[in-house]
Design brief:
The complex is a heterodimer of chains A (263) and B (788).
Chain A: E1 5-7, H1 12-18, E2 24-27, H2 33-38, E3 46-49, E4 59-61, E5 67-70, H3 75-81, H4 87-94, H5 99-104, H6 107-113, H7 120-127, E6 130-133, E7 137-139, H8 140-143, E8 158-163, E9 168-175, E10 182-191, E11 194-200, E12 208-209, H9 211-219, H10 244-262
Parallel strand pairs in A: 1-3, 2-3
Antiparallel strand pairs in A: 4-5, 5-8, 6-7, 6-8, 9-10, 10-11, 11-12
Helix pairs in contact in A: 3-4
Chain B: H1 16-20, E1 36-42, E2 48-54, H2 56-59, E3 64-69, E4 105-106, E5 112-118, H3 121-129, E6 132-137, H4 144-147, E7 163-169, H5 174-182, E8 186-194, E9 206-212, E10 217-222, H6 227-239, E11 246-249, H7 265-277, E12 281-284, H8 287-293, E13 300-308, E14 314-326, E15 353-362, H9 376-394, H10 398-405, E16 412-413, E17 419-420, H11 425-435, H12 441-450, E18 454-463, H13 471-476, E19 485-491, E20 497-501, H14 510-522, E21 529-532, H15 550-576, E22 584-587, E23 590-593, E24 599-601, H16 602-610, E25 625-630, E26 639-649, E27 654-665, H17 672-692, E28 722-725, H18 745-764, H19 779-787
Helix pairs in contact in B: 9-18, 14-15, 15-16, 17-18
The chains are: A alpha+beta (263), B alpha+beta (788).
Chain lengths: 263, 788
């Protein structure tokens, strides 16, 4: 890596101030950023750690019944502390990467990075969660904006993610054999007013809602409701580990399995 | 009853104490006073002409001690190839130069262009980024068949083509084989790819070069399986340093799997630069560098045809293989698809006529060389796949077809020039059927099907030629080195023993197993014996560890040296006991006069050898130290039968291995626990090749699987609990221990059974037209095959 300055503020306000410098970059769990730096693919002047800010840590439930997760909360903490409130979300967190990744990587880091094969974006989108930053609240439907792209502005920090808790939910991940990221991951969430289905890993445009499946499942929440539905392979990623056709097929299979597991 | 010490005991691996407590001494742990660091600027294009390299800005940067390019190595030797293959027409293979740093052209992604030596690695890396390289990109040669077409770009401009050699074996059999195939009652044909692999030892390669101006001695610390081979190749062929001025040390090495046999440019560079700069120079590979600079393995494209008569007897076998050499010839690359592959094509079967054709091809990819099994996995895979396919085509039981064609009498001279000394293929197959519980398979298949899964069973046999090998034979076959080994047994005055061995231990457990042998011969405690290896200044000139040879070859040398020790010790004892030498017996560390209660202990004799106050100085020299060199008369031939049971998810194509059984014949076994560990590790690597691992280049010669994000290594959850057995032992007939070697068996024997099992699972669903899928059998490949 190249040399950089390092700050570890203890308040969101201090972090925002520190990030005002040119070429300053936030560092959360570092599970993507540190390997990037080691390969000299980025040259920030300053890294601002977000992991020393108490108000960005932990899992709780608010008065509206939402599960609120601090932006710098590691996956392992979500896996343990969200289990009673939102089991499907906790299960997703417990299966990201390996123990080292889960103890360093954070929900805010993952959602801010928006890797097209990351797990968390599917939970955020399928749950209709709210991404809370230092200066606004962003609905999930307005947040994700294609591969590695989000509604976040330069210097904006995810302080919290608020998840409405569905009646039933499940996440099914089919892993890419090498990286163990999602080759295809499908998060299904059933709410009183309908079902939301979010797909990660598969699309050239990053995480997306499969609206056809949502409509079918809202009418009939059973695996059979998916029969005959397909996503367009033309929009899917093709790489060493899966052709677009294979990914399109897996979207259907994983959706059915998620519904079966959630039912 | 299992023994608790000596030969046959499951002694705990003493070296593991330091490995598991973080006190091992690996090459990267070695830091020398005044050390500098080198960073290699490597090509990011597969093929290009170097028009200019401007190092002036880089040279002026802070901390830079020296910058080297190919020009600095003009007039200095290139990396040598240790094996010359003669082609079908009697001509020597085409052998290109392999400069330490690229000269004129770059030939693969990762080819080193320049080396920056600086006070810190950071500074070296910064300066490397300031080097301006003008490279004119050329069309990349990637596909082997296209590489041989008229008009293809050439990897080496001074060679006539991209063909290294066109080898035929046995050329005199060709017409008879062609005729037999033409007239056969049935011919089964299979075209397949043996996928390119990256060895990925846990420890990446490291090299530290040091020069001592006071005595003109160079020292290289390196991650090697064979320090003396490196001393020989680098000293004699690259840098021109005589042996007595060059010391090569390979300390603890974290896994080799073949890829640390070879002499690499980085080793030569640090030794050369340390001398030039009069500063120690250290290089530690990053994992990314390992992917593009460690020799890769396998990468064969093969068509195999098996002919059978009307009674299902194998009558002839013909193969045509394209073998990728990569951009340069790595140290033993030419031998792998030829003498380590063609000679094994008989397998366990009495096929009378065999012809093997191999075209070795240069491409703009990382050089390919031996990887665990080296040639023998490629032979086993194609043979055991085609036999399985034949059984399916003929509607006969694949095990019965194998049994019908087994070699049953030994010694057996194959039609491909080797003579199997011993074996019992029926016994290992019987054992396999028992330990794999074949009888219970149908019930297990029904259980899987009830869950919506498919279940398949795959079986295969294997034979390998190990204990590499007779020097006079390999010399005739083109080896440019001897392949004996050596051991010195140094008995100290108090009776403890240091055994200096030419073999190198990088995971094999020599430090535990070798003392078991000496302890058994002398009747003393294993803890009194220590193995010394890996330092050319301490050990006799041996040839190192590869080809499952350590115990069979170096262990035999150690036995011979220990026999000399016993002979001399008995002479000393007879003097002390005032008895005739012929009456002295050695048992449990005591020398006794036969038929009497007169005895002296091991320690009394060893002390007398070094404090020779009462000693037959007129007859024998003082001291107790003996060296033996051992060159075997034949290869050893471990064999066995493996069984894999898979479950397949038809909706996703995902395969999981549910059961795996291995019945091996390794001859005699010194430490059964270590042997089982070797088999487990080998099968794990075989499963990796069969289901996960794949090194892929795109058409531009860019390495797509250049990190663990895309290169899938097997993990603990990918492998089952193994059932292994080595009780069907037919001892090797020609080495004193009767051992055959066990290091490569698992990697050789496992891929075909995995693939056979997957095909069985798919066909059980009625899809009989799926007869083959190329490795790795990834979910998408299996799913795609099932859609067809």
């Amino acid at each position: 890596m190249y040399a950089f300055d390092f700050e570890k503020p203890t308040t969101v306000a201090d972090a925002v101030a520190a990030l005002a410098d040119d070429e300053a970059q936030p560092l959360s769990g570092g599970q993507t950023l540190i390997p990037t730096l080691k390969q000299r693919l980025a040259m920030p002047s300053k890294l601002v750690s977000l992991t020393g800010i108490p108000e960005m840590q932990g899992v709780c439930k608010n008065d509206a019944g939402e599960v609120c997760i601090g932006g710098a909360t590691p996956h392992a903490v979500v896996a343990a502390e969200a289990a009673a409130h939102y089991p499907a979300l906790a299960a997703l967190a417990s299966n990201i990467g390996d123990p080292a990744v889960r103890n360093r990587g954070t929900i805010g880091g993952s959602v801010a990075n928006n890797d097209p094969a990351a797990c968390y974006p599917s939970a955020v989108l399928a749950s209709g969660a709210t991404v809370v930053t230092n200066n606004r609240e962003i609905a999930a439907d307005d947040y994700f904006d294609g591969l590695f792209m989000t509604a976040l502005e330069e210097g904006e920090i995810i302080t919290e993610v608020r998840f409405p808790v569905p009646q039933a939910a499940n996440y099914q991940k089919f892993v890419q054999p090498a990286s163990r990221f999602a080759l295809v991951g499908v998060f299904v969430a059933k709410f009183a007013d309908g079902v939301r289905v979010a797909v990660t890993g598969a699309s050239n445009d990053g995480v997306f809602r499969w609206t056809e499946a949502e409509e079918a499942l809202s009418a009939n929440f059973s695996p059979d409701a998916i029969n005959g539905l397909t996503v367009d392979a033309g929009d899917m990623i093709g790489d060493l580990h899966g052709t677009p056709e294979y990914r399109a097929h897996l979207v259907g299979v994983m959706t059915k399995r998620a519904v079966a597991a959630a039912s | 009853m299992p023994k608790d010490s000596g030969i046959g005991a499951a002694s705990k691996r003493r070296e593991d104490v330091r490995f598991l407590t973080g006190t091992g001494n690996y090459t990267d742990d070695i830091n020398v006073y005044g050390q500098t660091y080198v960073y290699f600027l490597r090509s990011d294009v597969a093929h290009g002409r170097i028009n200019n390299i401007d190092t002036s800005a880089a040279a002026a940067m802070e901390g830079v001690v020296g910058i080297f390019t190919g020009a600095d190595f003009e007039g200095i030797g290139g990396l040598p190839c240790g094996w010359q293959v003669t082609d079908r027409f009697g001509e020597a293979m085409q052998e290109p130069a392999h400069p330490v740093l690229a000269q004129g052209k770059v030939r693969h992604v990762g080819d080193p262009i320049a080396a920056v030596v600086a006070e810190s690695l950071q500074q070296a890396r910064d300066a490397a980024e300031a080097i301006e390289v003008d490279i004119e990109e050329l069309p990349a040669v990637v596909d082997m068949k296209a590489a041989l077409e008229e008009g293809s770009a050439k990897v080496h401009d001074d060679l006539t083509s991209n063909l290294c050699y066109d080898w035929g074996f046995v050329e005199d059999n060709k017409a008879a084989v062609d005729e037999a195939i033409k007239n056969a009652a049935h011919v089964t044909t299979l075209e397949l790819v043996n996928n390119r692999l990256v060895a990925n030892p846990m420890e990446p390669r490291v090299a530290v070069g040091e020069y001592n101006r006071s005595n003109d001695e160079s020292t290289l610390y390196t991650t090697s399986q064979n320090p003396h081979v490196i001393r020989l190749l680098m000293g004699a062929f690259v840098l021109g340093i005589p042996e007595h001025k060059l010391r090569v040390v390979a300390p603890d090495v974290g896994g080799g799997f073949g890829t640390k046999i070879f002499h690499y440019a980085e080793e030569a560079f640090v030794t050369f630069a340390a001398r030039k700069l009069n500063r120690p120079v250290k290089w530690t590979a990053s994992r990314s560098e390992a992917f593009m600079s460690d020799a890769h393995g396998r990468d064969h494209v093969t068509k195999i045809e098996l002919a059978l008569d009307a009674d299902n007897n194998f009558t002839a076998l013909r193969t045509e293989t394209y073998a990728n050499m990569g951009a340069y010839l790595s140290t033993f690359a030419p031998s792998v698809p030829t003498w380590l592959h063609g000679t094994l094509m008989a397998g366990n079967y009495k096929t009378p006529l065999i012809y093997v054709n191999v075209k070795a091809v240069f491409t703009n990819t990382v050089p390919v060389d031996a990887y665990r099994g080296a040639g023998r996995p490629e032979a086993t895979y194609q043979l055991e796949r085609v036999v399985d396919k034949a059984a399916r085509e003929l509607g006969v039981d694949p095990i019965a077809l194998r049994r019908q064609n087994f070699i049953s009498e030994f010694p057996y001279a194959t039609p491909v020039a080797v003579e199997y000394d011993t074996g019992d293929y029926f016994a290992t197959m019987d054992k396999l059927e028992e330990i794999a519980d074949l009888a219970g398979f149908e019930a297990r298949r029904k259980e899987s099907e009830a869950k919506g899964m498919l279940r398949g069973l795959g079986v295969n046999c294997y034979i390998e030629a190990c204990g590499i090998a007779p020097s006079n034979l390999v010399g005739q076959l083109g080896a440019r080195a001897g392949l004996y080994d050596a051991a010195t047994v140094r008995v100290n005055a108090t009776g403890s023993i240091s055994v200096m061995v030419g073999a190198h231990s990088h995971g094999q457990g020599h430090e535990t197993a070798f003392p078991q042998v000496v302890a058994d011969m002398l009747g003393i405690d294993e803890s009194m014996i220590e193995i010394v290896h890996g330092d050319s200044s301490k050990i006799p000139f041996g040839m190192g560890t590869y080809g499952s040879r350590s115990l069979a070859v170096c262990g035999s040398a150690m036995v011979k040296a220990t026999e000399k020790i016993i002979k001399k010790a008995k002479k000393i004892a007879s003097h002390l006991l005032e008895a005739s030498e012929g009456d002295i017996e050695l048992k449990d560390g005591q020398f006794t006069v036969a038929g009497t209660d007169k005895s002296v202990a091991w320690g009394d004799v060893t002390l007398a050898a070094y404090v020779p106050h009462n000693y037959p100085l007129e007859d024998i020299e003082p001291g107790l130290e003996e060296t033996a060199f051992y060159d075997p008369s034949n290869f050893t031939y471990p064999s066995g039968a493996y069984c894999c049971e898979v479950e397949l998810d038809p909706e996703t194509g995902r395969v999981t291995i549910e059961r795996f059984a291995a019945a091996d014949d390794f001859g005699n076994v010194v430490n059964p626990m270590i042997v089982e560990g070797q088999v487990h590790g080998g099968i794990g690597q075989g499963i990796g090749q069969a289901l996960l691992e794949n090194c892929v280049y795109d058409s531009e010669g860019q390495l797509l699987s250049a990190s663990y994000m895309d290169y899938a290594m097997p993990r603990a959850e990918d492998v089952p609990f193994y059932v292994v057995d080595h009780s069907c032992a037919t001892p090797c007939t020609h080495n004193p221990l009767g051992v055959k070697g066990c290091g490569e068996a698992g990697a050789i024997g496992s891929p075909p059974s995995v693939v056979n099992a997957v095909i069985d699972a798919i066909q059980s669903s009625g899809k009989k037209d799926v007869t083959h899928i190329d490795m790795p059998l990834s979910p998408q490949r299996v799913w795609a095959a099932m859609q067809g």
